[in-house]
């Protein structure tokens, strides 16, 4: 609640925010981020275990200036949501997105085999 309150007051002027491993980051924070942080360009939500995919989607939809998002430690992300994330313009780091790009590994292996 304290993080959400801070964002309500100061979020409009932030362009970078690191909430890495902040335990209280949850639904209230997501709502405040989406509502107040329109200028945010860089956001680190790594290890924020209380956030859901829906809350993350809300943040991505509302923070239109977002360029970079760190999501290290997010192991509870569904396959379908990973595919949606891969289509955004935001540079996302920390997620294991191999399922989205798995076909590339097969392609590169077959190319390597042809040139060996």
TrEMBL record:
- What domain of life? Eukaryota
The protein's matches in Gene3D superfamilies, at most eight in alphabetical order, are given as: Ribonuclease Inhibitor
Checking SUPFAM superfamilies in the record gives: RNI-like
Matching InterPro entries, A to Z?
A: Leu-rich_rpt_Cys-con_subtyp, LRR_dom_sf
Residue stretches in coiled coil: none
Q: What is this protein's record name?
A: F-box protein
- Protein species of origin: Noccaea caerulescens (Alpine penny-cress)
């Amino acid at each position: 609640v304290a993080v959400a309150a801070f964002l309500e007051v100061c979020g409009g002027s932030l362009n970078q925010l690191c909430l890495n491993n902040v335990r209280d980051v949850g639904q209230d924070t997501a709502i405040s981020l989406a509502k107040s942080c329109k200028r945010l360009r860089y956001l680190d939500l790594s290890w924020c275990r209380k956030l859901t995919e829906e809350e993350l989607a809300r943040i991505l939809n509302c923070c239109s200036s977002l360029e970079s998002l760190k999501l290290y430690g997010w192991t509870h992300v569904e396959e379908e949501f990973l595919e949606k994330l891969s289509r955004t313009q935001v540079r996302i780091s920390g997620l294991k997105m191999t399922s989205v790009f798995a076909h590339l590994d097969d392609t590169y292996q077959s190319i390597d085999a042809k040139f060996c």
